[in-house]
Design goal:
Number of domains: 2
Order of helices and strands: HHHEHEHEHEEHEHEHEHEHEHEEEE
Subcellular location: Cell envelope
Main location: other
Shape: elongated
CATH superfamily of the largest domain: Response regulator
Distance between the termini: 50 Å
CATH topology of the largest domain: Rossmann fold
InterPro entries: Bact_Solute-Bind_Prot2 (IPR050555), Peripla_BP_I (IPR028082), RhaS (IPR013459), SBP_2_dom (IPR025997)
Number of helices: 12
Protein name: Rhamnose ABC transporter substrate-binding protein
Largest sheet: 6 strands, parallel
Helix content: 40-55%
Strand order of the largest sheet: 2-1-3-4-5-13
Strand content: 15-25%
CATH class of the largest domain: Alpha Beta
Structural class: alpha/beta
Number of strands: 14
Keywords: Signal
Bound molecules: alpha-L-rhamnopyranose
Length: 358
């Protein structure tokens, strides 16, 4: 029996039984098997001229389903799939710190034998085994927004260069506080791959001598939960009365922090920047709490994740560096480690915010 048939029949078995049982029945996949399968998944020869398949099913698994950022992103994915003649489904946890929940959803999508999945990982390592299992069942895996590690997916659709994002957030805040004073970061979950990568670049940017009078005093975590982020902002200001600015590289965090600052004596005095949606932040830009912040269009990120998933499932790309494909009228080339960049972020301020609606 060819290997792909064995894989499918194992997946079919998984659909009817519990995954754990099915995996055992499938001869206890060893680590080496998974490695080999995974290598095969990306090493397969891509044919850029292959026809775009229709009738595929792509499952979206965001970090958190009730987060407006992912609502926009996944809507972009759904629209792209409808346009391409394929089906969309979405599963996912309601908390951004439910890693085991995310693993369960990967297994659910595998059992349902979707053709591809687009995943925003809450944690870089936790999903790896489940994602490799999905790939060894012939399912194409795209991460979007927040990556796992390169061996655990076929490609990562990144919202913007991570380095650009990290450095520009420091640059935005430094200008706002006149290159002087204590600053803090209010992030999402402590394990989040995307936020941690950006924070790494923020720290590196701060090493430049032009920031010698700026001191990063704390990194707090609001877990992409509005209430926790609000309380963490309050805590930062209590512990560091001299705080001059906060960077929030999360849409949930920056909105909650703006809400706290706008109602407190700190409004306009403690500067706030980071990543937010124009619709969440408009009010705070207009009332003088926030000068400028940035983001990409989440719907375009979801759109590109869906189109990448379909290109992989159609055999047009395999996820290897240097391969190119067309997505919605643009040609994208896969970079190092299977990363595909959506583009550059947009900075929003009082002058341009009304031109955006997301
Ligand atoms: C939150 C999530 C997401 C991140 C945005 C900026 O919605 O943490 O992963 O990309 O913020």
């Amino acid at each position: 029996m060819p290997k792909s048939v064995i894989r499918r029949s194992c997946a079919a078995l998984a659909a009817g039984t519990s995954l754990a049982l099915a995996l055992t029945a499938c001869g206890g996949t060893t680590k080496d098997d998974v490695k080999a399968d995974n290598a095969a998944a990306t090493a397969g020869k891509a044919d850029p001229n292959a026809a775009t398949k229709k009738g595929l099913t792509v499952g979206f698994l965001p970090k958190q389903v009730n987060n407006p950022y992912f609502t926009s992103a996944d809507k972009g994915g759904r629209q792209a799939l409808t346009e391409l003649g394929s089906a969309y489904k979405e599963v996912g946890p309601s908390s951004a710190t439910d890693t085991s929940g995310q693993v369960g959803y990967v297994n659910t999508l595998t059992q349902q034998q979707v053709d591809a999945m687009a995943v925003s990982a809450q944690d870089p390592g936790a999903l790896c085994t489940a994602l490799k299992q999905a790939m060894s069942n012939g399912i194409k895996v795209v991460t979007y927004d927040s990556d796992t590690t390169p061996g655990c997916r076929n490609a990562f659709v990144s919202q913007a260069g991570a380095e650009d994002l990290g450095r520009t957030e420091v640059q935005l805040l430094a200008e706002q506080i006149g290159y002087k004073g204590e600053i803090a970061i209010l992030s999402a979950a402590q394990t989040a791959t995307n936020q941690n990568t950006w924070i790494g670049f923020m720290k590196d940017e701060l090493k430049d001598p032009k920031y010698k009078d700026i001191r990063l005093v704390e990194i707090a975590y609001g877990n992409d939960d509005a209430q926790q982020s609000f309380q963490q902002t309050q805590g930062l200001l209590q512990e560091h009365p001299g705080l001059k600015g906060i960077i929030c590289p999360t849409t949930v965090g920056i909105k909650a922090a703006a809400q706290y600052l706008s109602g407190a004596k700190y409004k306009g005095k403690v500067k706030l920047t980071g990543l937010g949606t124009p619709n969440d932040m408009r009010k705070y830009v207009k009332n003088g709490t926030v000068d400028a912040f940035e983001l990409w269009d989440p719907a375009k990120l979801g759109d590109l994740a869906a189109r990448t998933a379909v290109a992989l499932a159609s055999g047009q790309i395999s996820g290897r560096e240097g391969e190119s494909f067309r997505a919605g009228g643009t040609t994208y080339t896969i970079g190092k480690d299977g990363v595909i960049n959506l583009g550059r972020p947009t900075v929003f301020d009082a002058k341009n915010i009304d031109r955006f609606d997301f």
